[in-house]
Amino acid sequence: MVHDSSPFNVTVAQIKTKLGDVKSNLSLIRKLSSQIRKSDIVCFPELATTGYALGRKWIELAEEIPGTVTEELSKMASEYGFYLICGVDERGRGEEAQNIYDSAVLIDPKGKLVGVYRKVHLWGSERKYFTSGKSFPVFRTKLATIGIGICYDLEFPESARILARKGAKIVFYPSAQPSNARKMVEIYVRSRSSENCVFTAFSNRVGYERNLSFFGESQISSPDTRILAQAGGGQGFVSAKVDLKVLDEQRRLLPYLRELEPGAYST
Predict the structure, then answer these.
(1) Among residues 43, 86, 90, 119, which one is catalytic?
(2) Which terminal residue of the chain has fewer beta carbons within 10 Å of its beta carbon, N or C?
(3) 254 φ, ψ to 5°?
(4) How far is CA 17 from the centre of its chain?
(5) Alpha helices, DSSP H only, in the chain?
(6) Does 8-262 carry CATH code 3.60.110.10?
(7) Which of 43, 86, 151, 197 is the catalytic position?
(8) Is 119 a residue of the active site?
(9) Where are the domains of the chain?
(10) Is 142 labeled as catalytic in the residue annotation?
């Protein structure tokens, strides 16, 4: 796929989901999507269609891809004319039907499913219910080559490095990061951008679920560590223009990817 070198607009949204109410959450995603103007790619948080603190109910609500949830998301992407990334509760197909995955879908502006990323690094009780993904794919779009991680993946620098080495120019992190992780996330988002010379787009939850509070502060970071846009602690979204010329210039100044020495990294 040929990439357009023109700058493009990125939006990260943050929502307060209704726990276990897929219909209500899809309506909320649609409502916010309808308010976003002139964005080329929009990212919603981890498990945005179901809510996060579900335990065994994750199994009950998991749905195959494609399915009714992704069909509805596809309608939104085509109606509003942007690429859409959204966290979903996925059930495997065929031999994987007994597995569920903490996943994110990427849908193009015509409503076509481009790909699915399955969260590799599972946190805490997620391990009781979800099956870990096994790879970090990149997705080639008309805007740029895109990488996706989910929440806890952000805290493992290897994941962003793999995506960057595969050609990702921007990495999205749909997330449900709790309030006690605020300071760490602030560092991680900028670090992943700087050390890999990529743009990083972090989309986080807000609100409360059971014993969890989510701090929001969704943000978009440039390879030169600038925060291009950052939300507060309430429901909504922020947008920023991404210019890949900044990335190219930063990779000339700081050739981290070119000057890696993987032969010395063996443990």
Answers:
(1) 119
(2) C
(3) -125, 85
(4) 16
(5) 22-35, 57-61, 68-80, 126-129, 157-165, 182-196, 244-253
(6) yes
(7) 151
(8) yes
(9) 8-262
(10) no
